[in-house]
Inverse folding.
């Protein structure tokens, strides 16, 4: 029997061997579709695929926090899955990619199997494991959603010329820093000029087959390098580059409204070093929620990101150099990708829309579904004799706590009086005396050096914290400490040197 071969996409690279540089690449739309799909991926998925070595600001740390924090601090057990394995709202498109590196299972259906469930008339299902039914039981795996069911954005097929996101039969040119454009003579000439190519003899053409491992590697390099193709081809080692927060464009301050977060306490030394920030569940939610936001919407919210990478050039190409080659119905899917249903506080602050919850049609009653599962489709006739032979299942918010517990289903982390400490590099701990002592010991700080301040946050400041968390390794220090920038930069350089 023939071995099943792993799918690959072919890319032709134009290499300046002397300068050891890939000048640009040429490909069909299959490769460009895969590149564009990066924008639809939630940040938590990117961190997971890159095995917590994405080097995106503090996001690897943030992801580990969610993994490590006891499930008791979350509204439901499902909240962890929502952050660690967030659903891609464009999954129905991405599953048509030649190579889909997002291995999140997007279409699993979980239901309460309790036949005497008090909520049996609600006909609810969850898209995440371990959601809680109103009756208190945990929802269990039922089946995967059939294809095309619940797809509000199901692609139309579109024939030969139609790709997943791209269209047409033409070739694409992709620069080393991931600007995508349809191939044309004027473009080629301008590229030759840009790279100072006098003699075409100096350019070597090489075919590279990208398998999923290479695509993952390209994703990582697109976040951390301005020359991802060169780095892939010459297998250059990655250097961790920390964002220089000084060169970031100033954000508009017109959205300066208060957000619903209790006042926070900042513990710092008199010599301006931040020990930690004490915040409530709402504050932690604004940080954790970042993991559920798709990359494209993050780039939209902050204009430019990440400073050390070039994946934002993909985003800019969609409404720029590649505009005519992107299917019109996919433009907003890539420029402002939605988050999965039941968005969160972080998405609200960033202005990210959420997908509407799914309604599933089943061809039996809900009770027969519980009793006999999804596979048997004629059970009502033989089993319950019900006249109604079809029903609708409604997607529930997996953050909703069972009836006997009060809770805010808008947030992942349980509210109440719980306080958390967040260190400068976004390490989150439930607040305790021993955790405080540990921070003091680690920082070698005497108690007389300590200074405590209380602050309330505006929406603008929350966005600044989110932005800092995406950009650098010292997110909170860069927002909460006075603008002693020189010292801060020196610190972040030391940190990046220590890590590389
Ligand atoms: Zn139930
Ligand atoms: Zn039935």
């Amino acid at each position: 029997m023939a071995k099943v071969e792993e799918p690959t996409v072919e890319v032709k690279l134009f290499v300046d061997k002397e300068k050891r540089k890939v000048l640009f690449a040429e490909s069909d739309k299959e490769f460009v579709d895969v590149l564009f799909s990066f924008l639809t991926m939630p940040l938590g998925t990117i961190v997971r695929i890159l095995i917590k070595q994405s080097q995106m600001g503090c996001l690897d740390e943030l992801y580990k926090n969610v993994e490590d924090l006891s499930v008791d601090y979350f509204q439901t057990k499902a909240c962890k899955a929502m952050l660690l394995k967030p659903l891609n709202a464009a999954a129905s498109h991405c599953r048509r990619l030649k190579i889909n590196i997002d291995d999140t299972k997007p279409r699993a259906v979980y239901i309460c199997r309790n036949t005497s469930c008090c909520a049996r008339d609600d006909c609810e299902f969850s898209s995440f494991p371990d959601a809680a039914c109103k009756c208190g039981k945990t929802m269990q795996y039922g089946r995967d959603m059939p294809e095309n069911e619940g797809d509000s954005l199901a692609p139309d097929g579109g024939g030969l010329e139609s790709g997943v996101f791209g269209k047409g039969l033409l070739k694409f040119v992709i620069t080393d820093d991931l600007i995508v454009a349809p191939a044309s003579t004027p473009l080629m000439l301008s590229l030759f000029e840009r790279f100072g190519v006098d003699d075409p003899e100096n350019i070597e053409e090489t075919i590279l087959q990208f398998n999923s491992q290479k695509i993952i590697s390209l994703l990582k390099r697109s976040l951390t390098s301005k020359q991802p193709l060169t780095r892939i081809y010459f297998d250059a080692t990655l250097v961790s580059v920390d964002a220089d927060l000084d060169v970031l464009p100033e954000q508009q301050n017109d959205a300066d409204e208060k957000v619903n977060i209790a006042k926070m306490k900042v513990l710092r030394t008199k010599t301006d070093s931040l020990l930690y920030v004490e915040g409530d569940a709402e504050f932690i939610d604004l940080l954790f929620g970042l993991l559920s936001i798709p990359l494209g919407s993050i780039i939209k919210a902050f204009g430019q990101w990440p400073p050390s990478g070039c994946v934002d050039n993909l985003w800019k190409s969609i409404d720029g150099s590649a505009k005519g080659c992107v299917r019109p119905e996919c433009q907003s899917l890539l420029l402002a990708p939605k988050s999965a249903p039941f968005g969160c506080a972080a998405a609200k602050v960033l202005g990210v829309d959420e997908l509407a919850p799914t309604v599933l049609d089943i061809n039996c009653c809900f009770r027969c579904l519980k009793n006999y599962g999804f596979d048997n489709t004629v059970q009502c006739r033989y089993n319950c004799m019900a006249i109604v032979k079809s029903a609708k299942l409604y997607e529930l918010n997996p953050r909703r706590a069972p009836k006997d517990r009060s809770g805010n289903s808008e947030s992942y982390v349980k509210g109440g009086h719980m306080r958390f400490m967040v260190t400068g590099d976004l390490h989150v701990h439930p607040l305790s005396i021993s955790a405080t002592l540990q921070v003091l010991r680690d920082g070698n700080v005497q108690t007389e050096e300590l200074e405590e301040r209380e602050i309330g946050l505006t929406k603008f400041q929350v966005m600044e914290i989110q932005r800092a968390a995406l950009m650098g390794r010292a997110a909170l220090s860069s927002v909460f400490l006075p603008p002693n920038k020189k010292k801060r930069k020196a610190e972040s350089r030391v940190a990046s040197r220590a890590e590389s």
The two ends are 46 Å apart (CA to CA). Residues 364-365, 367-368, 380, 383-384, 386 surround zinc ion (ligand 2) (CB under 6 Å). The chain has one domain: 9-107+145-152+162-357+396-499.
